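[recover] target loaded
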């Protein structure tokens, strides 16, 4: 019994080490954005690989490092490798990023059975240098990182088990009609910083991806909204394109959208009810050409409309009616670099009682239309330190004209009430 007990303890320790070694990847850092929320990793429990039935495998490619603490991982990154070494059959995580690899032949993957994650980012891989079907044979592959390479085409075929595919910072300009077929478990697809244009999307390549939750198409050459996106979508990233129009009712088939990012486009006029989405939390429309406001859904918390051409924040358009039983959740608005000359109407605090911060910053106003904004940041609720700072500035306020003082009272009233 003593021997069996010791063996049981060893197996438990080994299982704990295996469980702790899985690594998540946050692509937010790739694009230098301002991540207000870390985007979630959606994991499909039905695609888990079987764990090898032997403890502490020691086989490792001589070019790489297999730490005893993570017995199912092989680290071959940052080693100036030009080729992929042979991969032991037990490996589940393979890290080959930041090398000089140009090709992905089938040979090194001959005996691979359990691999779940492959990171080949920051190499020099081209599409025609990937052996046909080399990834498709990896029936337990869940994550594939190929960002920052030289890919001109989408690297298909791929295994049906795949959940996360990262292809940012390549030269992909084509998506063959069948490239995304047979991927029922795909939840995250990153195609940012490529050469995709509207012609690529005519075949509606994403329409059959029934479990897709995150689609990133930022920094491409799109001029129109991508057609027929799947209703499962939660996060849509379209920043840095040339989109000038959102078709009416476009989002009717996307009721689960949580975050929509469309900054740095050419948007001018948006139909008032375009964003009437029940689950929308974050909306980023900064750096466009907007002149008018639009309806704000109850769920929205963060709104970014900086660097537009808005002269007046029409609260009535944003909030046509008050509903005490369903208060709106908006807490933060960024409106700097517009053409505002006065603060947002205090009526906004009846419509959006949870607002904490309005970032006015600097406005693009002319000398003939002087700005009446007296602070770059408006905070609904002050910390004790901020309250004391406001008190210390009272003497300066008293020196202003009576008209200025009345405007100031109207502006700062929500601070104290």
């Amino acid at each position: 019994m003593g021997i069996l007990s010791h063996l049981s303890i060893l197996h438990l320790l080994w299982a704990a080490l295996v469980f702790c070694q899985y690594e998540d990847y946050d692509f937010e850092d790739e694009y230098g954005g301002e991540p207000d929320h870390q985007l979630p990793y959606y994991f499909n429990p039905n695609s888990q690989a079987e764990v090898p039935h032997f403890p502490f495998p020691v086989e490792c490619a001589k070019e790489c490092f297999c730490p005893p603490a993570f017995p199912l991982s092989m680290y071959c990154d940052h080693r100036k490798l030009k080729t992929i070494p042979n991969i032991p059959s037990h490996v589940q995580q393979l890290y080959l990023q930041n090398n000089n690899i140009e090709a992905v032949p089938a040979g090194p993957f001959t005996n691979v059975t359990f691999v779940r994650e492959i990171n080949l980012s920051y190499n020099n891989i081209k599409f025609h240098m990937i052996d046909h079907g080399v990834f498709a044979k990896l029936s337990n592959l869940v994550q594939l990182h190929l960002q920052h390479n030289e890919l001109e085409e989408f690297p298909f075929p791929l295994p049906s088990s795949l959940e996360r595919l990262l292809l940012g910072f390549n030269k992909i300009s084509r998506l063959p009609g069948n490239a995304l077929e047979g991927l029922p478990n795909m939840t995250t697809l990153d195609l940012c910083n490529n050469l995709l244009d509207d012609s690529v999307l005519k075949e509606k390549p994403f329409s059959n991806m029934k479990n897709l939750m995150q689609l990133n198409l930022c920094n491409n050459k799109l001029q129109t909204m991508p057609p027929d996106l799947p209703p499962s979508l939660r996060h849509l990233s379209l920043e840095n394109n040339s989109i000038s129009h959102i078709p009416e009712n476009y989002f009717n088939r996307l009721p689960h959208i949580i975050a929509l990012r469309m900054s740095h486009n050419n948007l001018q006029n948006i139909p008032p009810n375009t964003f009437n989405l029940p689950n929308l939390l974050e909306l980023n429309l900064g750096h466009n050409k907007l002149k008018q406001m639009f309806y704000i859904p109850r769920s929205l918390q963060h709104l970014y409309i900086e660097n537009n051409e808005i002269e007046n924040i029409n609260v009535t358009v944003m909030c046509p009616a008050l509903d005490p039983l369903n208060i709106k959740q908006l807490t933060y608005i960024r409106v700097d670099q517009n053409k505002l000359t006065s603060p947002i109407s205090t009526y906004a605090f009846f419509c959006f009682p949870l607002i904490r911060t309005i970032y006015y910053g600097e406005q693009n106003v002319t000398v003939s239309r002087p700005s009446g904004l007296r602070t770059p940041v408006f905070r609904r609720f002050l910390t004790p330190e901020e309250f004391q700072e406001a008190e210390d500035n009272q003497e300066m306020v008293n020196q202003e004209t009576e008209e200025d003082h009345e405007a100031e009272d109207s502006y700062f009233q929500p601070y104290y009430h």
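[recover] notes: Confidence is low (pLDDT under 50) at residues 14-48, 394-417.
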